[in-house]
Write a structure and sequence with these properties.
The protein is α+β, with helices and mostly antiparallel strands. The protein has a single domain (about 10-255), classed as Alpha-Beta Complex (Cathepsin B, Chain A), CATH 3.90.70. It contains seven helices and 15 strands. The strands form three sheets. Strands 3, 6, 7, 10, 11, 12, 13, 14 and 15 form a nine-stranded mixed beta sheet that branches. A four-stranded antiparallel beta sheet has the order 2-1-5-4. Helix 1 runs antiparallel to helix 2 (about 30-45) and helix 2 (about 30-45) packs antiparallel against helix 3. The longest helix is centred in the N-terminal third of the chain and has 18 residues, at about 45-65. The chain is globular.
Length: about 260
């Protein structure tokens, strides 16, 4: 399991951290930890303020999940951090196996309670767009009774405003935008950030609405971001690796 040091910036998960544009989106998720984050962004004036905000969110996570989010120098999974930061009280989507030969749906339904997906059973997806649209992808398995290919189908209750996708060490291409479809309606979510990991350290790229990319390494540059080209000019291979570190997860949002 990947480990993440708590010196890792929470704003890396939500890139750009422009309170005017992100507040409504993040508050609509109605997550306690995101609410703490949004309130903290409103008052953030310095690097020290960012560290204080980090500690407040960390302590709240530890209070509710002490094993997953330990204190001290221990870390936790970046995927678990993203999951609990995007967790919902009610489920937003379901996952269900579909047997294509008979158009039969398995009775077992997995409920998704967060705007977060990881790579379980999606090894055949070619891109992040292919992953979430048309919300049905091969599982690489066959039905033992009818020998038909088994598909995994994702159904959303409503179009999410934000999605975090975790897909380290895969060949999945990072789409610049994705379009979830619900009841034949779709809305574009744009790539806004990427988290990288290597040598027990995390860095990020933050992507503006105009496609400008900014590189952030809190160990080297504290709160300062370094200009790093544009999304339009960057290949998929260049998105998968940054400064010797590999892509772990990507953040998509309407804003």
């Amino acid at each position: 399991m990947e480990r993440i040091d708590y010196t890792f910036r929470f704003f890396q998960l939500f890139g750009i951290a422009d309170a005017d544009k992100w507040t409504e989106t993040l508050q609509s998720i109605e997550n306690t930890y995101l609410d703490l984050l949004v309130d903290g962004f409103q008052d953030m004036k310095s690097f020290e303020s960012c560290e204080s905000l980090r500690d407040s969110v960390r302590e709240e996570l530890h209070r509710n999940y002490p094993t997953i989010f330990p204190l001290g120098h221990a870390g936790t999974s970046v995927g678990q951090l993203a999951y609990y930061m995007l967790e919902l009280e009610d489920y937003n989507a379901t996952l269900q196996a579909v047997f294509s030969k008979y158009n039969y749906e398995d009775m077992e339904v997995d409920e998704i309670h967060a705007y977060f997906f990881h790579t379980a059973n999606i090894s055949l997806a070619s891109s992040t767009q292919d992953w979430i649209d048309p919300f049905e992808y091969p599982m690489g398995q066959t039905c033992q009774e009818c020998l038909s290919p088994t598909m995994k189908q994702t159904r959303y209750n409503h179009i999410p405003k934000t999605l975090v996708l975790e897909y380290p060490h895969t060949n999945i291409e990072t789409s610049h935008q994705i379009k979830p479809v619900v009841n034949r309606k779709s809305n574009s979510l744009y790539l806004r950030g990427i988290i990288y990991h290597g040598d027990n350290h995390f860095t990020s790229r933050i992507i503006s609405r105009k496609g400008q990319i900014w590189y952030h390494d809190d160990m080297l540059n504290k709160e300062r971001c370094i200009e790093d080209g544009t999304l339009e000019d960057m290949s998929n291979e260049e998105l998968k690796e940054c400064q010797g570190k590999d892509l772990i997860l990507a953040v998509y949002s309407q804003v």
